[in-house]
Design goal:
Chain A: This is Aldehyde dehydrogenase family protein. The complex is a heterodimer of chains A (293) and B (339). Chain A has 293 residues and is of the alpha/beta class. Chain A has ten helices and ten strands. Chain A has a single domain, classed as Aldehyde Dehydrogenase, Chain A, domain 1, CATH 3.40.605. In chain A, the strands form three sheets. A five-stranded parallel sheet of chain A has the order 7-6-5-8-9, sandwiched between helices. Chain A has a three-stranded antiparallel sheet with strand order 3-4-10. Chain B is an alpha/beta fold and 339 residues long. Chain B has an eight-stranded parallel sheet. In chain B, helix 6 packs parallel to helix 7 and helix 11 packs parallel to helix 12. The longest helix of chain B is centred in the last third of the chain and has 18 residues. The chains are: A alpha/beta (293), B alpha/beta (339).
């Protein structure tokens, strides 16, 4: 007979985050997520190529509304995400600690850095245009203005090691400028990404702006790389796997996707990132406007 | 379940005395006046609403993959009546749409053409000019589309105008006010009159599709009655909706109409086509309809001559799915025209 004070633990099976909803994988499959010491933590959804297709559809549908918001508004929305992450501190610390095998103090530091990174990028929303745009001098009576515009739907292969700081560091620069994202979370350490999706769902980020898929890259990354309705792909999560990265880059060539190649090893995410990740997913639009008399 | 529900002894008796193949002649006794029509139409077995919806839903769960899917998508493209029925239509838009109907996917010459282009009567000439003898028909909506609220002579003039301009098919709307208030004879006579107005000087005639606007008919029983009324009056096709009223085409409504055409052919030998229109936007939806056609009416109806989709956005989704099957890569709306 079970003693009355012991209870059966609820074993969680997390779901995907697509279009502001939390659907199960279309395939019905899930996989076991262990912590850094190999103990069972939870189940996560194993995304299939059809989930990737659905996520692209959701991201495309969200693009018009998100890129049409004022930069100031996007910044406010990302600040709000940072606030909610602060509220969920214990849950994030636990998830990062389990995933990366850190001490609670180290995990807390990783969370601090993640929130700071998000705030840092949010601040860029209404400044990136001033830095990368220009009023060009031309030989005629015209205003000639170059302004950065978001590329569209961006597929992001998130870093494998840094489950939260790395994730925020690759997602924030994509969406802050007005792109929408389909993110493949770290296959071995997906739980901080799942918690992050719960934060997004309860924040003011419109559904579909960020879509998070968990599971093996081999199921979803090739689909996203070859998808004609994806405008760019960030392969950072394939650091060190140059063979797979090359294959994906090849299939991305069909619709001339912008490709951010992975580095040889995963970068140190605690360093200040610079604006390179934002400008990679921006396009420059130049307009000529006659000067009135 | 719902199969073979219509087994009315009355029809069989009337049939025995009718020799002509013209359905309107076979049903002379039934269609004499409002009373005889009401007696017949209200004597049709009622539709089991829960059963019809359950059957439609269960047929929608069939999984159609690989080669069967490729076949279904090509068939669905061939069945599309590519439609533009907006107040803001221009000759340019109709020309573009007609060109698209002939070559839906300019990047792939194996892609079949659609069945027809469906426009307002004043645009028939423009569409005809582009389509010529390509095999793609021009369908015109007539008879004071979409409400059907006009005097009969105006409706007939509207129809004749479309036929003279070169329409191969005429989509008429029934007078829902008359139908719902039980003036069946009036509805019947109008359909007969419009069918006569479809005649061309050379003796041939434009095909007549009869639109019920099932969203306004309230019950499946009414859909079944309207189907029989239109078939007896000599319509070549029965069509669910104008696309201007919600709900437009649904699976259960189409199921009831498919049962009606199946039973009608069993009893008279005359085959009538069915056209769901409005609200069918994805390939998945279209394939559900095709499964239902095969299971309810039979594969004789799996042909553009006997089943059509009234749609505009559906075609692009079919083309994207087709491209996915041929190239193995998901396509996007950037690669297909906006219409």
């Amino acid at each position: 007979m079970t003693p009355p004070d012991s209870r059966i633990e609820v074993r969680k099976t997390y779901k995907l985050y697509i279009g502001g909803q939390f659907p199960r994988s279309e395939s019905g499959h899930s996989y076991v997520v262990d912590d850094a010491k190999g103990r069972f933590v939870a189940n996560a959804a194993l995304a299939s190529r059809k989930d990737a297709r659905d996520a692209v559809q959701a991201a495309r549908a969200a693009f018009g509304g998100w890129s049409g918001k004022t930069a100031y508004n996007r910044a406010q929305i990302l600040y709000r995400v940072a606030e909610i992450m602060e509220d969920r501190r214990p849950q994030f610390v636990e998830a990062v600690r389990q995933s990366e095998g850190l001490t609670p103090t180290q995990a807390g530091k990783a969370l601090d850095a993640s929130i700071d990174r998000l705030v840092w990028y949010a601040g860029w929303a209404d400044k990136i245009t001033q830095v990368t745009g220009n009023a060009n001098p031309v030989a005629g009576p015209f205003f000639n203005l170059s302004t950065p515009e978001p590329t569209g739907v961006v597929a992001v292969v998130a870093p494998q090691q840094s489950s939260l700081l790395g994730l925020v560091s690759v997602v924030a620069p994509v969406v802050v400028t007005g792109n929408t994202a389909v993110v493949l979370a770290s296959p071995g350490r997906p739980l901080p990404a799942v918690t992050f999706s719960e934060v997004l769902a309860t924040s003011d980020v419109p559904g579909g702006v960020v879509n998070i898929l968990t599971g093996k890259h081999s199921n979803t990354a090739p689909t996203l790389a070859s998808h004609m309705d994806v405008n760019a792909i960030d392969l950072t999560g394939l650091a060190g796997d140059s063979a797979q990265a090359a294959a994906l880059e090849e299939s991305a060539a069909d619709n001339l996707k912008r490709v951010l190649r992975p580095p040889a090893t995963e970068p140190d995410w605690t360093l200040e990132p610079g604006i390179g990740r934002m400008t990679t997913f921006l396009e420059t639009k130049t307009v000529w406007h006659p000067i009135g008399v | 379940m719902l199969d073979r529900v219509t087994s009315s002894a009355t029809i069989d008796n009337k049939m025995a005395s009718a020799a002509s193949t013209q359905p309107s002649a076979q049903f002379a006794d039934i269609t004499r006046n409002d009373d005889t029509l009401r007696r017949f139409l209200h004597g049709l077995p009622g539709v089991d609403q829960v059963g019809a919806e359950a059957r439609a839903a269960s047929l929608g769960t069939r999984s159609i993959k690989t080669t069967a899917k490729a076949w279904a998508i090509d068939l669905a493209i061939r069945m599309v009546d590519l439609t533009t029925l907006e107040g803001q239509d221009t000759p340019g838009k109709v020309r573009a749409l007609s060109a698209k109907a002939m070559h839906p996917d300019p990047a792939d010459s194996t892609c079949p053409a659609t069945a027809a282009v469906c426009v307002y009567p004043d645009m028939v000439g423009v569409a005809k000019e582009v389509l010529g003898n390509s095999g793609v028909n021009v369908a015109a909506v007539a008879t004071a589309f979409p409400s059907g609220r006009a005097a009969l002579d105006i409706k007939l003039a509207d129809t004749q105008d479309a036929v003279q301009a070169g329409a191969d098919e005429v989509d008429m709307v029934i007078d829902r006010g008359a139908f719902l208030s039980g003036r069946y004879k009036q509805v019947y006579d109008e359909i007969v009159a419009v069918r006569e107005a479809c005649a061309r000087p050379d003796g041939s005639s434009a095909h007549l599709k009869v639109i019920f606007e099932t969203g306004e008919l309230q019950t499946y029983d009414n859909v079944r009655r309207a189907s029989w009324l239109a078939m007896m009056a000599g319509g070549h096709f029965i069509k669910t909706s104008t696309g201007k009223v919600q709900p437009a085409a649904t699976l259960p409504v189409t199921l009831v109409m498919l049962e009606a055409v199946r039973d009608f052919r069993e009893q008279t030998g005359v085959q009538i086509g069915v056209k769901p229109a409005g609200g069918i936007r994805t390939s998945k939806d279209a394939i559900k309809y095709l499964v239902m056609v095969n299971e309810i009416a039979g594969d004789d109806w799996l042909d553009p001559d006997w089943f059509r989709f009234g749609a505009s956005t559906l075609l692009n989704d079919l083309l994207m799915q087709r491209t996915k099957l041929t190239t193995g890569v998901y396509s996007g709306p950037d690669y297909f025209t906006l219409d």
